[in-house]
Design brief:
14 helices, single chain, about 0% strand, mainly alpha
Length: about 270
């Protein structure tokens, strides 16, 4: 029977991250009462687990290729500045627009929902960038995207990737969320929808530009606002609606561009 390397990687990534959350983050928080900055660093180290797993266990997931060839391919194409800026601006803009609409509905200034905390702003930005955006993309949009693309077309592959990535965060919804009452339900739904939609948007960029730096910046654009955000569940509802509007439009534009690039039938 042919080995299902994708299945092995997904199961292993779930086991690893949940183990690290329970035993490393849990110990740091509950036993050693680590301060917020230390806990942030611990979470960043855990966020890199898809990359640790892939590179350390490489022969178990892609035995027919070397790590070097794979990594070079993931960052092979030349980076174009404007699309790169657009990848960041897309997700950051959606989050900012969601916060603006939420603040209008609630009748409060946008900045009333932003808390810069006690950590220096440059350090906060640096820690945000070196968490999921740089730690997860080689595994998810590098290895996993290639494996799903071998099996399915663009949309089904993107949705499958998004769902795997989304439910990888399941334990965090329980231990690292402010919504523990009825708001947990719309919060979880928002995570499922938004993360899946964001995966579709990432793959549109990657399909065209073939360099993981675009998904890194798109991921960073999504994460950055949440470092400082203090908003109620209404923000996430608005965010979900916007992604459900913008993502299908992006797919339609992508499909139209592909049809234009196809040779005309004789």
């Amino acid at each position: 029977m042919k080995t299902n390397y994708l299945k092995k990687y997904i199961i292993s990534s779930y086991i690893l991250v949940w183990t690290l959350i329970i035993f490393v983050a849990g110990t740091a928080s509950l036993v050693f009462h680590a301060p917020p900055v230390i806990m942030w660093i611990v979470r960043n180290l855990i966020a890199w687990s898809p990359t640790y797993l892939l590179l350390i266990g490489w022969k178990h997931f892609r035995p027919d290729e070397t790590r070097t060839v794979f990594v070079k391919r993931c960052f092979s194409c030349k980076v174009k500045l404007l699309p790169l800026l657009c990848s960041f601006a897309l997700t950051f803009g959606i989050s900012t627009l969601s916060l603006f609409l939420f603040s209008v509905i609630m009748g409060n200034p946008m900045l009333s929902y932003i808390n810069f905390g006690t950590t220096a702003l440059p350090l906060s930005v640096f820690l945000s960038f070196t968490s999921g955006p740089t730690g997860e993309e080689l595994g998810w949009r590098g290895f996993m995207r290639e494996e799903f693309n071998r099996r399915y077309g663009f949309l089904k592959s993107s949705v499958c990737q998004g769902l795997v990535w989304c439910f990888w965060h399941t334990l965090l919804w329980a231990v690292d969320s402010d919504f523990t009452d009825w708001r947990a339900v719309p919060y979880i739904v928002s995570n499922i929808v938004v993360i899946t939609c964001m995966t579709v948007l990432m793959n549109i960029f990657l399909e065209r530009y073939h360099n993981l730096i675009y998904s890194v910046l798109l991921h960073f654009g999504f994460n950055l606002l949440y470092v400082f955000l203090e908003a109620d569940i209404g923000f996430f509802v608005i965010l979900t609606v916007l992604y459900l509007i913008i993502t299908p439009i992006a797919v339609l534009v992508r499909n139209r561009l592909i049809r234009r690039m196809l040779p005309a039938e004789s």
